[in-house]
Write a structure and sequence with these properties.
Elements lengths: L1 H26 L2 H22 L19 H19 L1 H22 L11 H18 L2
Helix pairs in contact: 1-2, 1-3, 2-3, 3-4, 4-5
């Protein structure tokens, strides 16, 4: 149950962050705003690390396979694409499409067992659920 509430909080924070970042971009520029976002996140993470576990920071380099270290690089592009999509589509439409893409890609990762995730079997109910989400997008955009 805790995971459920954390996921809801994550979604809410992502939406709020996207709006904030879009406003910062209007005052500065997309790459300077993205840089500030990543830098401030780094500072918060270092502070949280200092306040909690203080494990060896270099242990991250022991991860296998090494391409798993690209999460930060992907994060920079996530920041960019969220800012740009919210600016072009507005918060509601952007988040709706972002979450739908997350759902489809996450199910594909599980279905094919990509990136060392345990492979899951095909389930019609999940495919139907995604079709309902896509139908919701069409309904939402319908004028």
């Amino acid at each position: 149950m805790v995971g459920f509430f954390i996921a809801l909080l994550s979604g809410a924070l992502m939406s709020i962050q996207g709006v904030f970042n879009s406003q910062v971009t209007k005052a500065s520029g997309i790459w300077s705003a993205s840089s500030f976002v990543q830098l401030s996140a780094f500072i918060v993470c270092i502070g949280a690390w200092l306040a909690t576990d203080r494990s060896n920071l270099l242990k991250v380099f022991s991860v296998q396979p090494k391409y798993m270290l690209l999460g930060g690089v992907i994060g920079a592009f996530i920041t960019y694409t969220v800012i740009k999509s919210m600016d072009l589509l507005g918060p509601a439409r952007a988040v709706m499409l972002i979450v739908t893409a997350q759902l489809i890609v996450a199910y594909g990762i599980e279905l094919f067992g990509l990136f060392q995730v345990e492979k899951q079997p095909w389930e019609w109910r999940k495919a139907i659920g995604m079709a309902v989400v896509i139908g919701g997008i069409i309904l939402f955009k319908w004028k």
